[in-house]
Amino acid sequence: MRPLIAGNWKMNGLTEPSVALARAIRHGLGDASVEVLLCPPATQLASVTGIVEGSGIGTGGQDCHAKEQGAHTGDISAVMLRDAGASYVILGHSERRQDHGETSEMVAAKVRAAVKAGLIPIVCVGETESERASGAQEAIVGQQIAASLPEDFDGVVAYEPIWAIGTGKVPTSADITRMHDFIRKELIRDLPEGANLRILYGGSVKPSNAAEILSLPEVGGALVGGASLIAEDFLAIIRAV
Ligand code: PEP
């Protein structure tokens, strides 16, 4: 399966810079052998989708509600994301788990809603710094996988150690490999499609470390935060595959 390089713009992007960033990525991409995805804020999703249309670049949301519609002020449903042009949605990002108290069970409900709406879910899992220091990382990630992925899950898993997100710290290649091997074993054990699902790495991926990380076995791409906001950096990460 082609590697996936996904940019998570998080809560960044007014209209003008979002349009400029999407255009720069589209025009700088050339013949990419990887799948490229932009996940702008929901307010920019339709316009970014319009800019990349026909280029092979996809767009995704950063979260969705578990319900299709109704009295949920401020929330956005998977159907709405699809309607705005998204083909993917990031779910269970650690910032959602922390800022909004999202549990893995809530993430699983959102995954079901996303799939029903025709979106491919990218489910994030990862341990805190203290969980890694105590050697609990596999137990934590194993629990998150078991509870966040419905038994018929067919989507993408992103391993994002929380302590590596936006910090410039990155696990060693050996640690990334160990965790991705562990995740693969869990997926194969629990899911019919487990052997075929892409497992992305996320956490301070930059042009300088992308080639090494993306060459590791079982790393099927990257979920990129900060570096996805700079067109040259994001394009350099794509070219590093
Ligand atoms: C992220 O938030 O998904 C992420 C990986 O961020 P960064 O690349 O900035 O560490």
TrEMBL record:
Q: Which InterPro entries match?
A: Aldolase_TIM (IPR013785), TIM_sf (IPR035990), TrioseP_Isoase_bac/euk (IPR022896), Triosephosphate_isomerase (IPR000652), Triosephosphate_isomerase_AS (IPR020861)
Query: Can you say where in the cell this protein is located?
Result: Cytoplasm
The GO biological-process annotations, alphabetized, read as: gluconeogenesis; glyceraldehyde-3-phosphate biosynthetic process; glycerol catabolic process; glycolytic process
- For the protein in the UniProt heading, the enzyme class is isomerase
Question: Pathway of this protein?
Answer: Carbohydrate metabolism; erythritol degradation; Carbohydrate degradation; glycolysis; D-glyceraldehyde 3-phosphate from glycerone phosphate: step 1/1; Carbohydrate biosynthesis; gluconeogenesis
Instruction: Write out the catalysed reaction.
Output: L-erythrulose 1-phosphate = D-erythrulose 4-phosphate; D-glyceraldehyde 3-phosphate = dihydroxyacetone phosphate
What EC numbers are recorded for this enzyme?
A: 5.3.1.1
User: Per the similarity annotation, which family is this?
Assistant: Belongs to the triosephosphate isomerase family.
Q: Which residues bind substrate?
A: 8-10, 166, 204, 225-226
Q: Which GO terms describe its molecular function?
A: triose-phosphate isomerase activity
Q: What protein name is recorded for this chain?
A: Triosephosphate isomerase
| Function as written in the Swiss-Prot or TrEMBL entry | Involved in the gluconeogenesis. Catalyzes stereospecifically the conversion of dihydroxyacetone phosphate (DHAP) to D-glyceraldehyde-3-phosphate (G3P).
Keywords per UniProt: Cytoplasm, Gluconeogenesis, Glycolysis, Isomerase
